[in-house]
């Protein structure tokens, strides 16, 4: 009986032992891997795809190890090809470690390539089983993606992580638009909603380029998959309301007690909704925004805690939001003549019959259709003080 039990136990352990043995035979040591943190895509003068990779060396990433070895925690490499896949394979002519695409933080696309169309290069990332759909897609305005990927960071060992974290700050900065790869692919395949993405720009040219010499704000505007223009930071704020992506941020208004001074209203949250009404062949586009916040900073003196002042602050804050929305709508309708807000998606969903008739010239319909904007703002409180400090 005892021997039978031992045999049974051995039989149960065999699959586990086989897993332990076979599961490690082809493992690559972590220190021998090259994890890709950033990808740069450009179009060359001779019409090739230029691929720049920022690769992380795990053994050098931590500051403690970095100080011991004196080695850079990341290194970059550039290759070319007639297609992106060929450029990827050509990396192996100089890279001696297998690059892993599963940890990409950012995909930066140069302006020249973006103006030529981004669908073909994004196909690689959508098709490849190793790549996730979470990297940030950022357009390099006025420069190449190669320059951005090669930039250093004083705050992070991995510069791509530094850039990604700035884009993630879109939740507290109304002028930054967050666009992940999955969002870009959805918008490109969506009828009645043209694409907008994050933008990075060099503001201080330097021989040793650093991320502190750049700014990430505004948005890139596409017609289908082709870059056609840009939105300013103010216009991007309006865009985010229309996309229901406006989180917290600062809205500056004049102090009603001293018009030469300003008040910073901290928006805590906002909910937005767009809608379309079609009646008797007349179309109306609707925007409704409900926002709330508190006073973050008061310049000048005076008591803003009275109900009269609160009513004025709420009305004027709502007016600023409405102006930003109106500004970006005007630019989309009059200058770009394309729907970057998704009104076409609403028509497709609510009025399928009408959509079938107008879908082929929707941008023309959108650019001439009136839009009604309704904004309400609620001031929750004025902070922990009622009156600002008076210097005596």
From TrEMBL:
Start and end residues of each stretch annotated as Disordered: 57-79
Domain Spore germination protein N-terminal stretches: 26-202
Biological processes annotated in GO: spore germination
Keywords of the record: Germination, Lipoprotein, Membrane, Palmitate, Signal
UniProt keyword Signal, yes or no: yes
Pfam family membership, one: Spore_GerAC
Subcellular location: Membrane
Keyword Coiled coil in record: no
InterPro entries in the record: GerAC_N, Spore_GerAC-like, Spore_GerAC-like_C, Spore_GerAC_C_sf
All copies of domain Spore germination GerAC-like C-terminal, residue ranges: 217-383
GO cellular-component term (any): membrane
Membrane topology of this protein: Lipid-anchor
Signal peptide: none
Family according to the record: Belongs to the GerABKC lipoprotein family.
NCBIfam families: spore_ger_x_C (TIGR02887)
PANTHER family (alphabetical): SPORE GERMINATION PROTEIN B3 (PTHR35789:SF1)
Protein's name according to its UniProt entry: Ger(X)C family spore germination protein
Highest classification ranks of the organism: Bacteria, Bacillati, Bacillota, Clostridia, Lachnospirales
